[in-house]
From TrEMBL:
Pathway participation: Amino-acid biosynthesis; L-tryptophan biosynthesis; L-tryptophan from chorismate: step 5/5
Record field: compositional bias (Polar residues): 1-10
InterPro entries: Aldolase_TIM, RibuloseP-bd_barrel, Trp_synthase_alpha_AS, Trp_synthase_suA
A matching Pfam family: Trp_syntA
Top-level taxonomy: Eukaryota, Viridiplantae, Streptophyta, Embryophyta, Tracheophyta
Assembly description: Tetramer of two alpha and two beta chains.
SUPFAM superfamilies: Ribulose-phoshate binding barrel (SSF51366)
Annotated stretches, region: Disordered: 1-26
NCBIfam families in UniProt: trpA (TIGR00262)
Name listed for the protein in its UniProt record: tryptophan synthase
EC number, UniProt record: 4.2.1.20
């Protein structure tokens, strides 16, 4: 189900598998070649939106300038969508898994994606049991965890990189790591790291009360999920409660699949 009053489209960026893995010492200009595939998930803006056409995106080569400290503070998810709506544009929201192949490359990738014109970047926290993800993201999470990636290391990296970005970051995390750390402490940590949004795929609407409360207290927009089979009354409740945008699972299958929009 697509509403002409809301915005959509979320490409998932990944390194060209034919290239050699990125090495940590590489500088941003060397990270040049990327390919784009389509997530099996659409992003719908909550309470407002823009156009309805789905652009075709081709593979591209990009040579990014060296990042410098941003003099323009980033805005939140809602402000980003409001701006895009005024301009009649769609949102470009790439996804990457933190720590795959390492956090140094993640930092470089965030800067490159920002330089490429990303409106929001979704950064996945690797988790050992990612039931909502398909084989591509599961493999990325496994590689990341094998390299010793954890939440504290991700936050340390973000504190260095976020001030250099012009677009907001939405963190994608399962609930277990949040619960383990403590919801209040987790949200404070996100705020301190400059994170503007949070997606938690495995918490139903009825259980989001504490998440929504602590997120609001720390200026973090909590993005909720719905599906094409969600009953309309419940979908309306999710749209009303979600902040920034509504995460619509467009297919009843694993997310982050391999269907490509670059052909």
């Amino acid at each position: 189900m697509r509403d002409p009053q809301v915005n959509s489209v979320s490409p998932f960026l990944f390194r060209n598998p034919e290239e050699k893995p990125f090495s940590s010492p590489r500088t941003i200009p060397e990270v040049q070649s990327m390919a784009v595939t389509l997530k099996t998930t659409f992003f719908f803006q909550s309470k407002a939106g823009g156009g309805d056409s789905l652009p075709r995106i081709k593979p591209f080569r990009f040579k990014a300038p060296m990042a410098t400290l941003s003099t323009v503070p980033t805005v939140g998810l809602s402000e980003t969508f409001s701006k895009l709506k005024q301009q009649g544009k769609l949102a470009f929201i790439p996804y990457i898994t933190a720590g795959d192949p390492d956090l140094s490359t993640t930092a470089q990738a965030l800067q490159v994606l920002d330089s490429c014109g990303s409106d929001i970047i979704e950064l996945g926290v690797p988790y050992s049991d990612p039931l909502a993800d398909g084989p591509v993201i599961q493999a990325a999470a496994t590689r990341s965890l094998a390299r010793g990636t954890n939440f504290d290391k991700i936050v340390a990296m973000l504190k260095d990189v976020v001030p250099q970005l012009s677009c907001p970051i939405a963190l994608f995390s399962y609930y277990n790591p949040i619960l383990k750390r403590g919801v209040e402490k987790f949200m404070i940590t996100l705020k301190d790291a400059g994170i503007h949004g949070l997606v938690v795929p495995d918490v139903p609407l009825e259980e989001t009360g504490i998440l929504r409360k602590e997120a609001a207290s720390n200026n973090v927009e909590l993005v909720l999920l719905t599906t094409p089979t969600t009953p309309i009354p419940r979908m309306k409740a999710i749209v009303e409660a979600s902040e920034g945008f509504v995460y619509l699972v467009s297919e009843l299958s694993w997310s982050y699949g391999s269907s490509c929009i670059c052909q």
